[in-house]
Amino acid sequence: MDKLWLIIKREYLTRVKRRAFIIATLLTPLAFAVFFVVVGLIFQYESDDTRRIAIIDEGNVLEKSIKDEKNLYFKFVNVELQVLRDNFDEFDYDGILVIPKVKDLMSKNYTVYYYSDKQPTLDIESLIRERVREGVKDYKIAALHLDPVQLEALDTKVALEPEPIDEMGQDASKLTGAIAAGIGGLMGVIMYIVVFIYGMMVMRSVMEEKTSRIVEVMISSVRPFQLMLGKIIGVGAVGLTQVAIWAILIPTVVLATSLVFGFDSDTQMQMAQSSPGAAEINPEDAEAMIALAIEEFNSLNWWTILPLFIFYFLGGYFLYASLFAAVGSAMGDDLGEGQSLTIPITIPVVIAFYIMIVAVQAPNSSLAVWSSIFPLFSPIVMPARLAFHPPLWEVLASAIVLAASSIFFVWLSGRIYRVGILMYGKKVTLKELGKWMFYRD
Amino acid sequence: MSSSILSLDNIVKTYDKNVAVDGVSFEVPKGSIFGLLGPNGAGKTSLIRIITTITRADTGTVLLDGEKLNSRHPEQIGYMPEERGLYRKMKVGEHLLYLARLKGLSKEQAKQQIQHWFEKFEIEDWWNKKVEELSKGMQQKIQFIATVVHEPKLLILDEPFSGLDPVNTNLIKDEIHQLHNQGVSIIFSTHRMEQVEEVCEHIVLINKGRNVLEGKVKDIKDQFKRNRFQIDYEGTLPAGLEQRADIVEQSGHSITIQVDEEGRSNELLQYLLQNGVFVIAFNEILPSLNEIFIRQVKSK
Q1: Residues 375 to 434 of A: which have CB under 8 A from any B CB?
Q2: Which residue of A has its CA nearest to B131?
Q3: A195 falls in which pLDDT band (50, 70, 90)?
Q4: Rounded-to-integer distance, Cα A82 and Cα A79, Å
Q5: Average of per-residue pLDDT values in chain B
Q6: In a domain, A145, yes or no
Q7: Min Cα separation B128/chain A (Å)
Q8: What digits encode the pLDDT tens for the residues B271-285?
Q9: Do A217 and B58 touch (CB under 8 A)?
Q10: Are residue A182 and residue A123 in the same domain, yes or no?
Q11: Location of each CATH 3.40.50.300 domain in chain B
């Protein structure tokens, strides 16, 4: 035990004290902050390019009224289109908008014409379409003698409020699904990254010990299994340290920069709206939704989710890191040669990642359920489902299978490792790795 | 208490279908410098890994100081493998401290020991140097300290001089002799015979996983001597010499002959003197270990 502890301590301290580790740990939150600031500034940036557009309203559809926008001015003119086009440069307009008569009040289609020496930019185009749509709507209401209030009432907003069958069950709001998906997706991605970064770290470290020929010196003092386990635990502790630091620093730094740079909720709203699918939310709804989201977020059972997340973190890490250690022990001085051996490990991780993406959308599908019990997938898939309140038996089954498999894989990898680290100058195949498991000590 | 620090009895070790060690037995007397010899691939390293508890024998027993090998024994053994290295990024002091503590020393004991060796090698200012900053020769010194820092009863050196320059070779040789004088038993594994002849008292010769020869160096040489004598002389040799002995080699006023029995050398010398040959030197030629080694390996 003492020796295992010495190994863990060395593996942990040599990494944590390394300059590269300190820099990466501190710079990553800073990079987040920089990204946040840059994106914020981009969204705050307003075009200083003033544009003037002449409107020829042939049917008086807009009744000489259209709202100006910042840096964008409209002017109704009573000049022939041809005259304007001929003297385009002298009039100093950026574009001419021709609004023809509305010929058919019952038609849904309507076309306006924009003349310019430049292509209309996307924002101008959508702004003009929106303004004309509103104008034409008002024009049609007036021409058809409709009641605007009644019309407004026709546009019914439907909300779906999930309610439990069992009265004691958890009352979910309409946002529960989305919040859970967000948190689940985030956890899945973190697990995916953790398995790769720290698993690879273990593999590289095993290879280094082998190629630097320290390993035989080491195992004349400790058992190979102790050395491997110590390394896995040490690197895992490094991973937990790094993730914990990030979990504190990243939100702090992002919050701090948003305060310093004074990004208000409008900017954030704009950022949110810029993401696809979020375009049609109006600000008031959005504010209510954010409040609801925060409430929803707080109502999640974090005292269950976080410990389980750490459990899956450890289980998944031990399982994959031990496999990476086994492969690292089989690799010789030639990194490229052994690379193919890592493929059987990376494939399940990548598949699990894709299953996770699907599982977040359909958390109770049989694919999601069975993948969260299968130990090679569960460390990535199950954390993604935790926020959806999976049934207890599924969590238990998944946790027990994962714990047992982690122990099994650590043991199995230990058997490969003890042979691999002493094997030099031999090209190793998967079949050979399999044989090593059955070698006697 | 047994008189052997190490005794191996009928050790067998197979990897897959490949028999690496096939029934090897020998004893290493306490306090001796013992040569474990054999060509490459003979099974030396496999045997050493069994002795150092890195692997286990399939069958057979190993006794260290009369006790069956167990997990506490690595702390009594100092092993310098042929494939050896250090953590390049670690500081020399920390590194030695780490290896010493893995051998069961307390932090204080370890520091004391390391200090002692640093003074001995006059490298007191190396504690904070990184291993990768050291030259290869310097690293070998650290490697040697790491092997002996926990004051092992049994020292196993696998090709200890490979990659060493003459200065460091002598330094390590001196240290080996000093440790020997302090009563440490030393197993010295190599295929370089001239080194064995210099330092070892006992040897075992392994080939293809079996031991083919074992004993004191002097006894083995006696056993393999072929009653050859080199004679330096003046005058002319009598014509009847060829009937009395085989002439192996003849050049100028020197001749090498072989007689069929040990006592015949006296008769031969008498015969030469009676026949008026002026004998300047008369030496028995003992075979070198190298010769014996090659003869044994080829014949089996």
Answers
A1: 422, 424
A2: A212
A3: confident
A4: 8
A5: 87
A6: yes
A7: 14
A8: 888 888 888 898 888
A9: no
A10: no
A11: 4-222
Structurally, chain A folds into a number of domains equal to 2
**Which CATH number does B226-299 carry?**
3.30.70
A94 and A178 part of one domain: no
- Write the residue in A6, A18, A212 that is nearest to B102 by C-beta: A6
Are residues A117 and A204 located together in one domain of the fold? no
pLDDT tens-digit map of A341-382:
888 888 999 999 999 888 888 888 889 899 999 999 999 898
pLDDT tier for residue A278 given thresholds of 50, 70 and 90: very low
Instruction: Find the CB nearest A220 among B15, B54, B98.
Output: B54
Looking at the domain assignment, is residue A347 inside a domain? yes
How much is the average pLDDT of A26-35? 84
ipTM of model: 0.82
Residues 21-60 of B with CB under 8 A from A: 49, 52-56, 58
What is the predicted pLDDT for the residue at A279?
A: 45
Please indicate, yes or no, if residue A7 is contained in any of the structural domains.
Answer: no
Same domain for A312 and A242? yes
pLDDT range class, residue B157, cuts 50, 70, 90: very high
Q: What is the overall mean pLDDT for chain A?
A: 82
Q: Which CATH superfamily is domain B4-222 in?
A: P-loop containing nucleotide triphosphate hydrolases (3.40.50.300)
* A305 and A347 fall within a common domain: yes
- Compare all CA atoms of chain A with the CA of B146 and give the residue at the minimum distance: A217
Q: What CATH number did the domain enclosing A90 receive?
A: 3.40.190.10
Residue A142 and residue A185 share a domain: no
Taking a C-beta distance cutoff of 8 angstroms, is the pair B50, B14 a contact? Answer: no
Can you give the residue range of the structural domain that contains A150?
51-154
Predicted confidence (pLDDT) at residue A266 exceeds the cutoff of 70: no
B58 interaction partners in chain A (CB closer than 8 Å) = 440
**Same domain assignment for residues A293 and A346:** yes
Residue A34 covered by a domain = no
Same domain, yes or no, for A429 and A339?
A: yes
Q: Is the pLDDT of residue A410 over 90?
A: yes
Whether residue A219 lies within 8 A of chain B, CB to CB, comes out as yes
pLDDT digits (tens, 9 = 90+) for A91-145: 788 888 898 888 888 888 888 999 888 887 787 888 888 888 888 888 888 888 8
Distance from CA of B83 to the nearest CA of A (A): 6
Residue A262 or B207, more confident? B207
Give the gap in angstroms from C-alpha B62 to the nearest C-alpha of chain A: 15
* B19: chain A residues, CB-CB within 8 Å: none
Task: Kindly identify which residue of chain A lies nearest to residue B45, measuring between CA atoms.
Answer: A422
Write down which residue in A154, A187, A220 finishes a domain.
A154
Cα–Cα distances (Å) from B275 to B137, B263, B268, B271, in that order, read 59, 19, 11, 6
Last residue in a domain, options A119, A154, A189: A154
Q: Which residues of B touch A434 (CB under 8 A)?
A: none
